[in-house]
Write a structure and sequence with these properties.
Oligomer: single chain
Strand order of the largest sheet: 7-8-9-10-11
Low-confidence stretches: 10-27
Shape: globular
Distance between the termini: 88 Å
Helix content: 25-40%
Largest sheet: 5 strands, antiparallel
Bound molecules: heme C
Radius of gyration: 27 Å
Structural class: alpha+beta
Number of helices: 20
Length: 487
């Protein structure tokens, strides 16, 4: 090599180093920038507090905290899991809420649910190959996420001996996932099937994978556009809650277990997450305390016309959305929003929340593929009220391994339970662990509000029901707490 070539090579090397360094610079400043944004958010909050604080000592403390944040230097966050694996997601996602007390980040980490590349500090590669585009609850990936194996090697919500603990497998069979009720209903309405069969329904596959059930029938296009694509295929979209807002995808387990506001926007502490983009829950938190407003993202939104293949939102939808934002506490406030105007219901169908009545198997399936709501719903009015001839069923809890104990996990409203207590039981043998019997009295504690209600018994009352007519429609003929057409 002559002198000139050496110089040339040296120049090339220099150039490479400069480019390399500047890439590295960008790459480092990226995560550091998110951290600085987070520090600034803390400073802003503290400064706002300072403005409204007059007490000398309190002010000094706030000022000290502000200085601490101002002096803080960005640092890579290495989360070391018990199995030795290192994850750095929190380097950018600072301040993100703990997902739940049953999934503490220092044992679970992030990638067990999200996938992605835990060591990367670069936006693109960190999120590469993540599950469900950031939504691990989607049924198409739930087998890998919720149904996967924890970092300690323990099976999660699939593959367990006790069927009730395999929520991932059960939920996929639930009518809410298969939509088999609607699909078979539409086919029957159009005279395509005499029975309740749904062609091509396959166990364990999300509804988005079923072909349109009209098989080239005249209304196939309308069913696809107005009903299936918009809402009724898993992987489809949730209905519009606010006029003028774009629809957002349905996200499987998250639809129930991550509470959302009507806008479906994030309001938590993680500064990397947009506050205006629709599609996320309010905070990074799983819950089993699911209020009726969450169920009513899909239910009680309006009228479906399966002949015209048309959906019409309820007329008072905007008021319902407004009430939801302010939060309803009283029965008279709830009753306006709970069901569609003009619908019939008994008083308890509003004072209680949906999941105070609808059991685990009602909401997450029982492993059977039903093709109608009538067959899928287990709970009946008589499961709480009994009939003119008999009291509702109950059972004595005999050991601490009873499922009833599990249903209380992470719900502060679960009434204290000890072996020997008597809990409610449905006619199908499913436990109602929030229903308790003490002597002759039965009561229920709402999982959502924590309110304790005594349950009135039909037996011994002046009720004029017929023993053979136990469906809700029959009861509503006499028992109606009519919704004032209030708005
Ligand atoms: C370099 C910084 C950075 C790293 C490292 C990082 N993220 Fe993110 N993440 C972001 C930013 C910025 C957003 C919001 C904008 C976007 O999605 O591009 C985001 C968004 C997300 C979202 C929300 C997606 C949505 O639907 O809006 C999830 C989930 C997420 N990240 C998970 C992770 C996980 C898990 C890891 C670790 C494997 C990780 N992130 C590592 C910066 C990062
Ligand atoms: C993402 C939308 C969505 C959410 C959220 C939702 N549901 Fe549903 N649900 C449906 C659809 C759609 C059906 C009807 C399916 C069919 O008939 O094919 C249904 C059916 C039902 C049924 C009758 C069938 C069955 O499986 O028992 C009950 C009961 C029910 N839902 C209760 C609830 C409760 C309680 C909640 C809140 C914890 C809830 N739903 C949340 C969409 C939803
Ligand atoms: C339609 C609403 C809905 C959907 C969708 C849903 N769940 Fe649930 N889930 C509930 C309700 C309500 C409870 C509380 C029921 C109870 O404890 O009786 C619950 C409870 C649980 C529990 C706690 C165990 C227990 O006995 O209380 C786990 C774990 C769980 N769900 C996992 C999942 C997984 C995983 C998915 C998705 C594959 C999912 N859920 C989808 C409504 C739902
Ligand atoms: C038990 C499972 C689980 C674990 C563990 C978990 N996440 Fe999540 N994460 C979810 C679910 C489910 C969502 C979707 C929530 C929604 O619909 O908004 C989510 C959403 C997010 C989002 C979007 C913001 C939001 O709240 O929706 C970010 C960012 C995120 N996760 C990052 C992380 C990081 C970082 C970790 C580790 C510290 C982590 N997650 C651990 C389940 C988990
Ligand atoms: C007081 C108890 C109670 C409450 C609260 C309640 N339900 Fe029900 N629900 C029932 C019973 C009982 C049935 C079965 C009706 C029958 O026997 O004909 C039922 C039936 C249903 C059905 C099947 C279709 C139908 O209308 O028969 C759906 C869907 C449903 N409920 C959803 C919900 C949702 C969503 C909520 C909350 C917004 C809710 N329920 C609140 C007791 C309740
Ligand atoms: C999970 C238990 C539960 C189920 C299921 C249930 N109820 Fe109730 N019911 C209650 C409780 C608790 C009360 C008392 C509190 C209240 O009225 O708000 C009550 C009160 C009543 C009352 C007397 C209150 C009044 O003045 O109207 C009637 C009538 C009634 N329920 C009818 C029904 C009908 C009809 C169904 C089926 C659609 C039903 N219940 C399902 C728990 C239940
Ligand atoms: C033909 C009318 C009629 C039908 C149908 C009917 N009830 Fe009643 N029910 C009554 C009357 C009247 C009373 C007594 C009201 C009172 O004491 O204030 C009553 C009382 C009750 C009570 C006790 C309320 C209390 O406060 O002590 C319950 C619970 C009840 N009914 C549930 C039901 C259920 C569940 C059904 C459907 C399976 C049903 N009823 C069907 C007329 C009817």
């Amino acid at each position: 090599m002559d002198k000139k070539s050496w110089l040339f090579a040296l120049g090339g090397l220099l150039l490479l180093t400069t480019v390399g360094l500047s890439i590295l610079g960008n790459y480092t400043s990226n995560w550091a920038m998110y951290q600085q944004k987070y520090f600034q958010a803390q400073i802003n909050t503290l400064q706002a507090q300072l403005k409204t604080t007059s007490h000398g000592q309190a002010r000094a403390k706030l000022e000290q905290q502000i200085t601490q944040w101002q002096n803080r230097k960005p640092q890579i966050v290495n989360l070391v899991l018990p199995n030795g694996q290192v994850e750095r997601c929190q380097t950018c996602h600072m301040g993100l809420e703990e997902i739940s007390t049953s999934h503490p980040p220092d044992t679970f980490g992030c990638t067990v649910c999200h996938g992605g590349n835990g060591l990367s500090l670069d936006l693109k590669t960190a999120h590469a190959d993540w599950y469900g585009q950031g939504h691990p609850g989607r049924l198409s990936v739930a087998g890998l996420t919720c149904g996967g194996t924890g970092p300690n090697g323990q099976t999660c919500h699939s593959g367990n001996k006790v069927q009730a603990q395999n929520e991932v497998d059960l939920v996929k069979t639930s009518l809410m996932s298969t939509k088999a009720g609607e699909l078979s209903f539409v086919r029957r309405m159009l005279g395509l099937d005499p029975g309740t069969k749904v062609p091509n329904l396959a166990l364990g596959e999300p509804a988005s994978q079923y072909p349109n059930p009209l098989n080239g029938g005249p209304r196939q296009a309308a069913l696809q556009t107005n009903c299936l694509s918009q809402c009724h295929q898993a992987g489809g979209l949730l209905p519009l809650l606010q006029k003028g807002k774009t629809e957002i995808p349905s996200n499987g387990c998250e639809n129930c277990h991550v509470l959302s506001n009507p806008d479906h926007t994030y309001v938590g502490q993680d500064v990397t997450i947009s506050r205006t983009e629709a599609g996320l829950g309010m905070v990074h938190q799983l819950t089993t305390q699911i209020p009726y407003t969450q169920c009513n993202q899909c239910h009680n939104q309006g009228l479906h016309d399966p002949i015209k293949m048309k959906f019409t939102p309820r007329v008072d939808l905007q008021q319902v959305v407004k009430d939801r934002q302010t939060g309803n506490k009283t029965w008279s406030a709830r009753v306006k929003d709970y069901y569609l105007p003009g619908e019939l219901f008994a008083k308890c169908e509003v004072s209680l929340d949906c999941i105070d009545c609808h059991t685990r198997e009602d909401v997450m399936g029982d492993g059977h593929m039903y093709t109608s709501e009538y067959a899928a719903v287990h709970i009946q009015c008589q499961d709480c009220h009994g009939t003119i001839n008999s009291l509702p069923l109950s059972k004595k809890v005999r050991s601490t391994s009873d499922l009833a104990f599990e249903e209380g996990i992470a719900n502060p409203n679960f009434p204290a339970l000890v072996v020997g207590d008597t809990i409610g039981l449905t006619h199908q043998g499913e436990e109602l662990p929030y229903v308790r019997q003490k002597g002759q009295t039965r009561y229920i504690v709402s999982r959502i509000t924590g309110t304790k209600y005594t349950i009135p018994m039909v037996k011994g009352s002046a009720c004029r029901q017929k023993l053979t007519e136990q469906g809700a429609d029959a009861c509503h003929a006499c028992h109606q707490a009519v919704s004032e057409q209030a708005h």
